[in-house]
């Protein structure tokens, strides 16, 4: 079994070819760095046009031309399941923390296709907070803000600016980063920015990861490539849980995670037959800015699917 995975959900156009046993035969990512720099973030219409410039036909036409089955993949499911590609011993059920540009999800993956959302952000995702912080600090926007912030934070003192930890008093597992974002913006506006960049970066990174850690304590259990977050997670789970962190290249958007999730579905017999030529020609993608993965956790409903 050999699967081609195509990823075009946001600003990266990515493709990969992966064998059924998880061997990655090829992977490429074309990022929209110029657009990110020019617009200071993702502009959906431009992003769509940029995808069309680097990928001449998309999945349905390829499947139709080569008479191959096709599988539609949920972007966040792919982010979650790529952990099973790098760790064959990761069996269902498991908990997944998905922290990226548009999402902040803590999910219980019960089995393939069955996900329960334990927590989500009530406003911004952590990646959004990182990207905005990087923008306000005037960091290089040719790549996303998170990695630039992580680099600077290494030489900053996280204790220097006392940002408060968001949602600390809440008992549920939801996240919130809009307040932290405002704290960071006010701090930047009121200080000599150049001297304070590493400090603000370190403090923002420290407070934002604190919230994640609080939630994981409660449940015993893109941004996921952040070494600082990983190290702190590792400290928590060391005692009796196993932490699986895919390599950074598989945490940000990539074709491998899509191909792998396709393999998982294909092996369970979940795929569509090759589209007919006219179906492929007329195919209209169901584009949704928000598309929940699984259902929300409801207290006392132990058998929720
Ligand atoms: P989503 O997956 O939620 O739809 P997306 O696909 O746009 O969002 P990804 O490509 O999955 O986002 O992840 C990009 C996000 O991860 C950006 O917000 C970026 O700043 C952040 N990020 C990437 N690397 C790091 C890092 N090392 N430290 C912190 N944040 C990071
Ligand atoms: Fe993503």
UniProtKB/TrEMBL annotation:
GO cellular component term, pick one: mitochondrion
Top-rank taxon: Eukaryota
Domain Gcp-like per the UniProt entry, residue ranges: 59-260
Name of the protein: Gcp-like domain-containing protein
């Amino acid at each position: 079994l050999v699967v081609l995975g195509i990823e075009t959900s946001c600003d990266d156009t990515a493709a990969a070819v992966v064998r059924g046993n998880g061997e990655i035969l090829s992977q490429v990512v074309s990022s929209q760095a110029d657009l990110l720099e020019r617009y200071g973030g993702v502009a959906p219409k431009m992003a769509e046009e940029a995808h069309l410039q680097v990928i001449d036909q998309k999945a349905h036409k390829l499947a139709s031309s080569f008479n191959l089955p096709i599988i539609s993949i949920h972007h966040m499911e792919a982010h979650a399941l790529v952990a099973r590609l790098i760790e064959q011993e990761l069996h269902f059920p498991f908990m997944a923390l998905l922290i990226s540009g548009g999402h902040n999800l803590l999910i219980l993956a019960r089995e393939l296709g069955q996900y329960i959302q334990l927590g989500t952000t009530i406003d911004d995702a952590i990646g959004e907070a990182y990207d905005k912080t990087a923008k306000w600090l005037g960091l290089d926007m040719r790549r996303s803000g998170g990695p630039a912030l992580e680099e600077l934070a290494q030489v900053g003192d996280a204790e220097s600016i006392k940002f408060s930890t968001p949602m600390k008093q809440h008992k549920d597992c939801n996240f919130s980063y809009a307040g932290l974002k405002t704290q960071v913006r006010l701090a930047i506006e009121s200080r000599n920015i150049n001297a304070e960049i590493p400090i603000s970066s370190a403090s923002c990174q420290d407070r934002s990861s604190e919230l994640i850690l609080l939630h994981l304590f409660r449940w015993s259990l893109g941004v996921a490539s952040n070494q600082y977050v990983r190290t702190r997670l590792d400290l928590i789970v060391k005692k009796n849980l196993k932490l699986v962190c895919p390599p950074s290249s598989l945490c940000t958007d990539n074709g491998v995670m899509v191909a792998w999730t396709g393999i998982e579905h294909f092996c369970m017999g979940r795929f569509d037959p090759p589209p007919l030529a006219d179906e492929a020609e007329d195919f209209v993608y169901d584009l949704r800015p928000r598309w929940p993965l699984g259902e929300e956790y409801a207290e006392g409903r132990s058998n929720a699917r």
